[in-house]
Amino acid sequence: MKATATANSNIALVKYWGKRDERLILPQNSSISMTLDGLYTTTTAEFSEKHRKDEVTIDGKKVAGEELDRVVRQLNLVRRLAKTHLSAKVTSKNNFPKAAGLASSASGFAALTLAATKALGLHIEKKELSMLARQGSGSACRSIYGGFAEWVKGSHHDGSDSYAKQLAPKEHWPELAMIVSVVTAEEKKVKSRAGMSQTVANSPMYRAWLETVEEDLKNVREAIMERKFTQLGTAAELNALKMHATMHTTTPHIIYWQPETITMMKEVMQMHEEGIECYFTIDGGPQVKIVCMDKNAGKIAKRVKGMAEVEKVYVCHAGEGARLSNKELF
Ligand code: 2P0
């Protein structure tokens, strides 16, 4: 009745931005991501009569309110499948700052879903596991897989065809790197969930996002399969800027960028001009992630570490999918 799982965070190269069903977490568009080796969450879940109610601790702090409700909802999904009413104790640890635009909800809900299903003795195929994880947090469905994953948006109302699948394992492209820099580790004020919903409701750019995202998906999918770095970086950078354009033009506007974010984007452009080919991508937060080839990763990381704006740098490559672990947290 107790299990531990680790899942890595993932960064989208074509972003998930907008839902068509908020309860089931069904997206407006498909998305493609790279699972990162350097950023991960480990979660232990135990179901037992001795727990009177669900108790959740993340990074040493007991969680309450909306954060607790989201975990309890996910536990309820798993309990329903296992036909049990047992309460759970859940302890989770991230090796990076959470809720700062580094996809902690992706690794967090992927690890939670795997640990909870295993603890209750359920044997679930990856596709189904990704659909379960999706209902905790959309991007979590992609963290079930290592390497490169696509979350296929699906069209059914019940979400039965909205799941992630692997495009290529991590061994497919070890020469690709992603440098994740942290410019401010503060938790963000507008969560992605609220930002996304408001953008769909009133950004005049949202229609353009949907009209052009299929092209980005095609370019990024092909770039991954054929290991075409320039095509990958160009398409991913454009896609991130388009997503932020929808946020900048929603009312009230959402601007996740900090002055440090712009400085970092300019630095990436400068390095690129100097002949160090690299591209940026940015999610629901101020952090800039740099896509580059491994041969340049050391040089780029050194430049970035030297910037006053940057607090921390993680040099990542494609990482593993969600997996069971024997390192129990309690
Ligand atoms: C992504 N993001 O594809 C996009 C890009 C943020 C920007 O997935 O409401 O925490 O839990 O489904 O997964 C962040 O959104 O949102 C996200 P919910 P989630 O990575």
Automatic annotation (TrEMBL):
Domain of life: Archaea
GO MF annotation terms: ATP binding; diphosphomevalonate decarboxylase activity
Domain Diphosphomevalonate decarboxylase-like N-terminal: residue ranges: 7-164
A Pfam family: MVD-like_N
InterPro entries named among the record's database cross-references: GHMP_kinase_C_sf, Mev_decarb, Mev_diP_decarb, MVD-like_N, Mvd1_C, Ribosomal_Su5_D2-typ_SF, Ribsml_uS5_D2-typ_fold_subgr
One GO BP: isopentenyl diphosphate biosynthetic process, mevalonate pathway
UniProt-listed Enzyme Commission number(s): 4.1.1.33
Keyword entries, A-Z: ATP-binding, Lipid biosynthesis, Lipid metabolism, Lyase, Nucleotide-binding
Domain Mvd1 C-terminal: 178-310
Enzyme class: lyase
GO CC field: cytosol
PANTHER family the UniProt entry points to: DIPHOSPHOMEVALONATE DECARBOXYLASE (PTHR10977)
Family: Belongs to the diphosphomevalonate decarboxylase family.
Record protein name field: Diphosphomevalonate decarboxylase
Organism the protein comes from: Candidatus Iainarchaeum sp
